[in-house]
Amino acid sequence: MTDLAGILARLEVLVASDTRNPPRAIAADDPVFEYLSGQLSGFAIQVTDLGDGCIALLAVRGTPRILFNFHLDTVPDTDGWSRDPFALTILGERAVGLGACDIKGALACMLDAAARTTGDLAVLVTTDEEAGVGRAVRAFLASQHGFDAAIVAEPTACQAVAAHRGIITARAVFRGVAGHASEQRVLEDSANHRAVRWMARCLQKADSWSGRERDGLTGVPLNFGRVEGGIKPNMIAERCEIRLGLRTLPGQSGAALLEELQAEAPADHLLEWQTTFSAPPLPAAAGQAGNPGSALIAKLGLDAGGAVGFWSEAALFSEAGLPAIVLGSGNIAQAHTADEWVALEQLQQLRTCYEKLVSHGL
Questions:
Q1: Nearest to 165 by CA among 215, 203, 204, 224
Q2: 15: which residues sit within 8 A by CB, 6+ positions away?
């Protein structure tokens, strides 16, 4: 535990900082940024406030070529927590607290590693990853940043990952013909019924994609996350809105798959169709020879892991032309859950990894 003291002291402060996103729009004057700046003594610090809770803190020491990226925001806590989510608790070999796994534990490891080393190092901390907008990272990438590669922290059990799924989401609005639900035409004219039939066809199509495979990942998960339509049981629904999402395979076009789903809806049934979020898989470039991330893992001598099913902002770095990998403590199964936790052994392992990388030069 002594060797973990520095990590846990930092993690305690980070967990105590309310960075839930939503509902909180984090501001540049939040005390957590003063804390981070104090922890990164000897670094050149730049804080960029893009508004709407999208903030980026860039800390640079020396002239590094590789950037480490961490997101400070967390998902909201749920009713299932058995303890205060903002108070770090050590239970056996686990550190429990909101964000401990995703991904404040890794940030605490980096802060501790930075204090133990003197080598060149660049750290980018952002606050809008959980909002699914990527605005802070995109703005950084649009600047003259000068970095050659990126290591993005997400829960990968301390294995370096070079491939993951992409994500694309959409909003579909179905029209119906309002009237009394006693009429036989309700079966055809209800916007809800039209939407349900369309969703059934889409699920069949998703089933047909189950044989597709890339980098050990199979199928294309389709999720209808929200369905809302109609007013009451005795009225034919005039409108039904659906929010859906796809998790694409590396090298796969999410836009093309959405077009397939849209085509399953008769044109006169569909009132609106809108792509609401789109982000590439990792690596972002389809059909390229090799994977730049895999080459980076080999160059740095990291323990390589297989492709993962979740999305990360490493794809945005890849899209901008930088070799990018995902590396962090914890397991994704422990993230976004009540009583979120990370193994103490993982924290120690990641801090050691960060120390070696910084000490050997980046």
A1: 215
A2: 85, 86, 87, 88, 97, 98, 99, 100, 104
d(CA 298, CA 60): 25
- The pTM of this model reads 0.90
Which regions of the chain does DSSP assign to beta strands (E)?
44-49, 55-61, 66-71, 89-91, 94-96, 121-126, 149-152, 166-175, 213-214, 217-218, 222-229, 239-248, 270-279, 324-326, 341-343
Proportion of the chain in helix, strand, coil states, percent, rounded to 5: 30, 25, 40
**For the segment 226-250, what is each residue's pLDDT rounded down to a tens digit?**
999 999 999 999 999 999 999 999 8
Q: Which amino acid is at 236?
A: I
Task: Output the six-digit token pair for 271.
Answer: 């009132």
- Of the residues 12, 129, 130, 340, only one is catalytic, namely 129
Give the type of residue at 247: R
Report the pLDDT value the prediction gives residue 188, as an integer from 0 to 100.
97
Q: Do 71 and 312 meet the contact criterion of CB atoms below 8 Å apart?
A: no
241 is catalytic: no
Length of the chain: 362
DSSP readout, 10-33? HHHHHHHS--BTTT----TT-HHH
Helices (H), 147-305: 186-189, 191-208, 254-262, 292-300
Closest CA to 308 of 289, 286, 335: 335
